[in-house]
Amino acid sequence: MKKTILCIGAGYVGGPTMAVMADNCPDYKVIVVDMNEERINAWNSDELPIYEPGLDEVVKRARNRNLFFSTDIIAGIKEASIIFVSVNTPTKTFGAGAGKAADLQFWEKTARDIIEHSKHDKIVVEKSTLPVRTAEAMRRILQSNTKNLNFDIISNPEFMAEGTAVTDLQTPDRVLIGALETVSGQKAMQRIKDIYLHWVPEEKIKTTNLWSSELSKLVSNAMLAQRISSVNSISALCEKTDANILEVSAAMGMDSRIGAKFLRAGIGFGGSCFKKDILNLVYLCEFYGLPEVAAYWEQVVKINEYQATRFVSKILNNMFNSVASKKIAIFGFAFKADTGDTRESPAITVSKMLLEERATLAIHDPEALKNAKLDLADETGDISYHCDPYKAAKGAHAIVVLTDWKQFQGYDYERIFKSMEKPAFIFDGRNILDHKKLFKLGFNVFPLGQREYSHLTEIEK
Ligand SMILES: NC(=O)c1ccc[n+]([C@@H]2O[C@H](COP(=O)([O-])OP(=O)(O)OC[C@H]3O[C@@H](n4cnc5c(N)ncnc54)[C@H](O)[C@@H]3O)[C@@H](O)[C@H]2O)c1
User: Fold this and answer.
1) Whose CA is nearest to atom 1 of ligand 1?
2) Domains of the chain
3) pLDDT one-digit tens code per residue, 299-325
């Protein structure tokens, strides 16, 4: 094989990204390493550590051909000439910048491992999402080596979305590659571009300077999250004015300047990235003396939190101000459909608030039950977990839809209604069910940003 590529970090990004790369580049050997042995064992098994549509096939095609998963980080560093770093960059929880700045300790440790074990020059590629100008700090750390080795730093942020990772990686909207404007930087950039050219059309590969590339990723996530918070804020106004958020979104989205995507109201965004990346942007703006810009972006996160709280208030208000000892079936715990990932899922916030109100929770999700159990492990209260939606809903007072899994639309709600306590409620936090049909079956239905369908009289409510 032509060259060895190493990826440090075998998570939601490192695993799928490198699997697709190896699949498309049979002339490269791709090694993915992680310090988490359990994760690596899972990547080498029939049950991959993450659920992504289409991922199994890609991994099976390339694994042990030119794709290898290992815990031997040192051997990987020694062998590879190109190292992608895809370790986690969570929000800092301590010291300066706590609650906003990115915690770069995993990144820095990786840089130090690379210095210690490298025997020849390397290209180090930032795959993780990092604050703008991180590459400068990394360059300084890497160039501090006393072995006279050269390290070129490239920024190549990942834009794939969980749930559609394989399609996004196979046919990306764009691949962004940033490099220093030096001869060596430009050469390194070309070598990374050559990899992507195996399957990505050249016009989709955008090259920029290092800082634009780093900042573009943060800002792309902030803009996406901002659209969600914008539409969610309007869903609150719709409920007060009898406007319908679906109609408002559709009308707005027909404007080609606005576009139709990312205008669906719901209980808010989750996932490991949006919140941390916006807070990181807020921190950067504060750091560079731009408090007005920081305040603008911080509001996106505040509206997201408001939307989840507002949704729980809606549940309480409509269930006679008490859910104590009432069974509530939670449909969906993953932060979005087609993933088992629950990091920052609004389902965690909503579940915890309902448990505080002493509700009994029966949680159903097609892929996320294992993570849901971990997320709620410290909660006291009555919680059960169900693969079967009918068991979750049996004897429940309410169903609360928190993830937009398509299969929720196909359940037999007549059967579900019959098995529930009456009056039976559905709170559709993702606006995915057929509300009129459910109402006809006897449910009291409460969507977001749309009129409610209630059999209860005003006095009963
Ligand atoms: N999840 C997404 O959808 C997504 C999309 C685009 C970008 N990103 C960014 O990509 C980065 C990784 O995200 P993720 O979701 O894959 O995180 P993750 O937590 O799933 O994976 C990170 C992995 O890195 C490993 N790791 C950490 N330090 C290490 C070290 N020193 N040596 C070896 N392994 C180490 C961890 O054990 C973990 O398995 C983050 O910066 C994130 O913001 C994520």
Assistant:
1) 12
2) 3-200 (3.40.50.720), 210-461 (3.40.50.720)
3) 999 999 999 999 999 999 999 999 999
